[in-house]
Design a protein that fits this description.
disordered C terminus, mainly alpha
């Protein structure tokens, strides 16, 4: 990547991807974007983690364990983003640039790998809950959930480890460091390795499981409509049956939104990663924007989940009630049904 510094800055050249400030002697635009995202990510995920720990209705949801895993990973992403921001502000001048570049790029890649694998596990969990409801509690146990979460972290840690042995570059997260931009090059074989062992399997799993879930929902709706056409005199019974089929689609949609936003924000990054690895396209601004667009998903996850899940909104409202008695969340809490009605069945819990 080309530095935006000029010859007049001589002894302390600036390496900026999107312009610099003469008066502040820093890469003002990069710093603003990184700090803004870091604050949003840290604040949003702290709220999610706090609600999960304090809202009793969320403690027994199997999916909530994976959501918490994503929240912790995204929180660490936000904290990690402070490293390049402080470096650009000249607070970390004695930092070894090569080590900082490799370390930051590796950590963010691992954390986002954890989020991607967690989304795949969530989709599998919902698929089992809907296709095998009677045996769900025996198949999805707390011990197996903990084992799966540990396996996610180990797998994501190992899959990016070869980058430290000179095989390739895991991504552009560290390109605000000049060494990372100029000396650490992508490798087509390593990029294919990451896509084949992480990105592609996770995307295929999510597409298959949610596709199956929505196919089941359509089938149930079709059967209900057929029954309604045959037995018009049993309108109330059919209406009740139709309502019983609603939670499948409603709760699946919550997680589908999270997954969709994840891949929408990450797809430009993955495509650019593959194009540059193959030597087809290279642009400094594109690498920066696609990278931090993907990292912004760490905030979008908590935002979408909090807005989509009624149990989460109730828990948040209960926590805000002592502080903001007139807040909107408290009104939702007052109008919400009792706890028993929010947990109709373990297979529908998000």
């Amino acid at each position: 990547m080309n530095s935006s510094s000029n010859s007049n800055q001589g002894s302390s050249p600036l390496f900026c991807l999107m312009g610099y400030s003469h008066s502040l002697d820093t890469c003002i635009l990069e710093v603003a974007i990184i700090l803004f995202l870091a604050v949003l990510i840290i604040t949003g995920n702290l709220v999610v983690i706090f609600v999960f720990h304090c809202a009793p209705l969320l403690h027994h949801h199997s999916t909530s364990h994976f959501i918490q895993t994503m929240a912790y990973a995204d929180l660490l992403v936000g904290i990690s983003c402070l490293v390049p921001a402080l470096s650009l502000l000249h607070y970390l001048q004695d930092l070894n640039e090569e080590l900082a570049c490799k370390g930051f790029g590796y950590i963010v890649s691992v954390l986002k790998g954890v989020s991607m694998a967690s989304l795949a596990c969530i989709s599998v969990d919902r698929y089992i809950a809907i296709t095998r409801p009677l045996s769900y509690s025996t198949l999805v146990t707390p011990c197996r959930l903990r084992f799966c979460i540990i396996l996610i972290w180990i797998y994501s840690t190992l899959i990016f480890l070869p980058c430290f042995f000179g095989w390739g570059k895991p991504g552009y997260h560290g390109d605000i460091f000049q060494w990372c931009s100029d000396s650490w090059k992508t490798n087509p074989t390593f990029s294919t390795f990451i896509v084949a062992l992480l990105y592609a399997p996770a995307a295929f799993t999510v597409c298959f499981t949610y596709g199956s879930i929505f196919r089941i929902c359509r089938q149930h709706t079709r059967e209900i409509n057929q029954q309604h056409a045959r037995f018009r005199s049993q309108t109330q019974t059919i209406r009740d049956a139709r309502c019983e089929g609603c939670p499948e689609k409603r709760y699946a949609m919550v997680l589908f939104r999270i997954t969709s936003v994840f891949y929408v924000l990450w797809m430009p990054y993955i495509l650019y990663f593959l194009l540059e690895s193959g030597g087809l396209y290279h642009h400094t601004v594109a690498s920066f924007l696609t990278t931090w667009l993907a990292i912004s998903n760490s905030f979008c996850n908590c935002l979408i989940y909090s807005l989509s899940n009624s149990v989460f909104r109730k828990g948040l409202g209960n926590l805000l009630n002592p502080l903001l008695p007139s807040c909107v969340g408290c009104e939702d809490t007052k109008n919400a049904p009792p706890p028993s009605s929010l947990q109709p069945d373990a297979r529908y819990n998000v």
